[in-house]
Amino acid sequence: MASTGSGFWSFGSEDGSGDPENPSTARAWCQVAQKFTGGIGNKLCALLYGDAEKPMETGGEKETQGSTEKKAVCTCNQKPCSCPKVDLNYACLHSTDLLPACNGEAATLSFLQDVMDILLQYVVKSFDRSTKVIDFHYPNELLQEYNWELADQPQTLEEILSNCRTTLKYAIKTGHPRYFNQLSTGLDMVGLAADWLTSTANTNMFTYEIAPVFVLLEYVTLRKMREIIGWPGGSGDGIFSPGTCYFIISVSYFLVCGYKMYITISYMTSYHFSVKKGAAALGIGTDSVILIKCDERGKMIPSDLERRIVEVKQKGFVPFLVSATAGTTVYGAFDPLPAIADICKKYKIWMHVDAAWGGGLLMSRKHKWKLNGVERANSVTWNPHKMMGVPLQCSALLVREEGLMQSCNQMHASYLFQQDKHYDLSYDTGDKALQCGRHVDVFKLWLMWRAKGTIGFEAQVDKCLELAEYLYNLIKNREGYKMVFDGKPQHTNVCFWYIPPSLRHMEDNEERMSRLLKVAPVIKARMMEYGTTMVSYQPLGDKVNFFRMVISNPAATHQDIDFLIEEIERLGQDL
Question: What Pfam families does UniProt report for this protein, alphabetically (predicted)?
């Protein structure tokens, strides 16, 4: 009898154990089995792998899509070699057969090409108006239809590809021309390519030595953004990092002292909920956030700001930050920045401008006047992943005072920020952020800017603003529609109620409001179940649920706006 470690099962065993339960042994025999023709090879592979060991179908589509057989090189060490090639079957391969596995190049290239095929098919479908924006399933349905749980045993590459297809099958096509649900929409091809490159490079932004090009591109891009804001020569500082809450914490951290302070910000739509989150994270509490009154369009009222500043100072507190907004989330309102800047200067208060949504208008000569006064801010947030269509995420904090971020945040971690390095240490950016490690977010913006130029971004922004005006003109006098506020929107936010025929002649009373409250949620649910389009809704103050339409997708057209209105009417006429 053959001893352990020899004979049939010992072939392909890396440790010579020949253990038939060892996955590497079975995989090696799977490779050999593929040399057989007429389907015998696959049957042998299944036999050698062991049917009982095959994982159940998880996270994949019930019908296998596309061929999983590819040509692969042999497993010898001769390069190049003249050995006969064998068929590569993903059903018998695992991630351990890919690089850095020995001779894993061919399997890796084949696998990644198939992944790329899946991605490219999804990209093409995203722009096809005949496809659904969403294939909606309720959470319990998705949980029951597929096994999403994590297991001890590895899945095959065939199953991994199936996981990819399934994930995209139920993903929202945010690049679809009829997706209007969020401020971040669209799918830019150059930005997508840049994101792929960034993931391939897989590095960190904390030191120049491990991200030389990316650090320099961040320096160049942030300087250009500060120049566009209006700071002389693009002077100042900045960083790309997670959104508004992080930035509020960062800015407040510059200013927090050892006594009770107040963050003064505008009331209602003129502040983002992340400001309160930032105050909570800082430990000064949400009660330290003072809400300033706004007008009917959602703009901060400067006189009320000054009144509240005087009020809290008389109580012995120290107001230290005013957070104005350039492009509010719901109304798209722009606070009167020059007047706010005058007040901040008078009382020596830091002025922060949240231009996460509205910052993109700085790229447009036609619309940048809406941010007049932003150059007087001490700090600005600007999210290119919103109006400029850069793939998520891409958020910038820009500070007028150079060196402030470093002096406030540096902790001199000697294992990273050695002071005797052989290059300019100012390019080691990790010590000027609250966090150390940072994802490379700048390359997407930089490459898109190179591809479009400033004039390309300008055209994109102008188109979205024009589409918003088209929508406003389409519905402002249309039967069954009522605007949430009078006048043309400042941004691409168009807020309105759809009033079904059954409510149009009702007296404007509590019963009518209670019924109108339910209209937008029902229409939105039907949109998602049909998969035809998506648009957001919300209540605000004493206003019941209304649609908040935003346009940031450059793929959208007048026809898509027409479709949205027709779809709302189709789905809501019976309510």
Answer: Pyridoxal_deC (PF00282)
Q: Does domain 203-410+426-443 have CATH number 3.40.640.10?
A: yes
Q: How far apart are CA 500 and CA 479, in angstroms?
A: 10
Check: CB of residue 329 under 8 Å from CB of residue 275: no
β-strand 379-382 against 396-399: which pairing, if any?
antiparallel
User: Would you state the structure tokens that stand for residue 548, as one six-digit string?
Assistant: 């908040």
Per-domain boundaries in the chain = 203-410+426-443
pTM: predicted TM-score of the whole model, two decimal places: 0.83
What is the pLDDT tens value at each position of the chain, 575 positions in all?
Answer: 444 443 333 333 444 444 444 444 445 444 544 444 344 444 444 444 444 333 344 444 444 444 444 544 455 556 555 555 457 899 999 999 999 999 999 999 999 999 999 999 999 999 999 999 999 999 999 999 999 999 999 999 999 999 999 999 999 999 999 999 999 999 999 999 999 999 999 999 988 999 999 999 999 999 999 999 999 999 999 999 876 655 566 665 555 533 345 555 543 234 556 777 777 777 777 778 888 999 999 999 999 999 999 998 898 888 888 999 999 999 999 999 999 999 999 999 999 999 999 999 999 999 999 999 999 999 999 999 999 999 999 999 999 999 888 777 777 777 777 787 888 878 888 778 778 789 999 999 999 999 999 999 999 999 999 999 999 999 999 999 999 999 999 999 999 999 999 999 999 999 999 999 999 999 999 999 999 999 999 999 899 999 999 999 999 999 999 999 999 999 999 99
What single letter denotes the amino acid at residue 105? E
Please count the helices (runs of H) and the strands (runs of E) in the chain.
16, 14
